[in-house]
Design goal:
Blueprint (H helix, E strand, L loop, with lengths): L4 H15 L4 E8 L1 H18 L16 H17 L4 H10 L24 H30 L5 H121 L4 E8 L3 H18 L1
Antiparallel strand pairs: 1-2
Length: about 300
């Protein structure tokens, strides 16, 4: 055992150096008072801001329609009402349902009433002409009677023969003239009837083309009216769209305030959280002290006890 004392002493020194070293270390954590004061001031200010109530915006945020726009709306609506009084679709359906125009039937000259084409003054012309011939015949009869008186044969058969011979040319002339006038009147009436039938044939021939042209013109008018009604309906739709946008804008304003109110409290909480997370960092200090005699002796005893157990 005495032989092991030097080793015990040396081991105690080594153990003392190992366990306690030559000094003792103490660590402590503290906050800088200046930084703590700044943190408390910042938190107090943030808390005061976070406690402020929500203040909604009460001013107008949606602009209404001006008088010029309102007049435009009324004018457009009036044009729409007047333009929709006629339904072009019905007219277009009627055109679509019509059949193809055909050439009409024209009567012949045999079926024509020739008397309807004769001049109403034809008989007057004949009567006047006959009267003129009769006057000449009467004059000639007077001359014949004068000659018979001069010859001393007035009232006899010879006088009758002379008077008959004087009247015969006029009677024949009356017959020829009356027949010629009636024939001329008939021919003129017949030509008038023929001309009328030719015109009717031409009209019947071109009537389908005229009908198609009229339908095309009507179709263009109905199509233009339908297009104009479409433009007026579009204008009325634009009015409705503008009014809808204005109403939607008026609805969005209170809803936006509602959303802003919902986000107000989380925003205030975020403000406080930022203030808390902005606190100053802790500082760490370390102190070193030398071991006392009792610490060294205690270390030597502990080492001796350990070695004794080994031996």
């Amino acid at each position: 055992m005495p032989q092991a004392l030097p080793f015990i002493t040396a081991g105690a020194a080594v153990y003392g150096a190992t366990k306690g070293g030559g000094s003792k270390q103490t660590t402590s954590t503290a906050t800088d008072p200046a930084q703590m004061a700044m943190y408390q001031d910042l938190y107090g200010r943030a808390k005061g801001i976070a406690q402020q109530p929500f203040v909604p915006y009460t001013g107008s945020r949606v602009a209404g329609f001006n008088p010029d726009q309102l007049r435009q709306f009324e004018a457009t609506r009036g044009r729409f009402e007047t333009g929709m009084q006629y339904d072009p679709i019905t007219g277009l359906q009627g055109l679509a349902q019509q059949g193809t125009p055909q050439i009409g039937q024209v009567g012949s000259l045999l079926d024509a009433d020739i008397g309807a084409y004769q001049s109403p003054y034809g008989q007057q012309v004949i009567d006047q002409t006959m009267s003129d011939i009769q006057r000449q015949a009467d004059i000639q009869r007077g001359f014949s009677q004068d000659r018979a008186i001069g010859a001393g044969a007035f009232g006899g058969s010879r006088s009758a023969i002379l008077e008959g011979e004087s009247q015969r040319p006029y009677i024949e002339q009356q017959a020829r003239t009356a027949a010629g006038l009636r024939e001329s009147g008939f021919i003129n009436a017949q030509r008038a009837a023929e001309g009328d039938i030719v015109r009717q044939q031409q009209m019947a021939q071109f009537a389908p083309q005229f009908e198609l042209n009229a339908r095309a013109q009507q179709l263009g008018l109905l199509g233009g009216l339908s297009a104009e009604q479409g433009r007026r309906m579009s204008g009325l739709g634009q009015i409705g769209l503008q009014q809808q946008r204005l109403q939607q804008g008026a609805l969005d304003v209170p809803y936006g305030e509602f959303e802003r109110a919902l986000k107000y409290s989380p925003g205030q909480l975020s403000l406080l959280s930022q203030a808390v997370y902005g606190q100053p960092q802790n500082t760490t200090t370390t102190d070193r002290t030398s071991p006392s005699f009792l610490d060294k002796a205690s270390g030597a005893v502990d080492l001796y006890t350990t070695l004794s157990a080994l031996i």
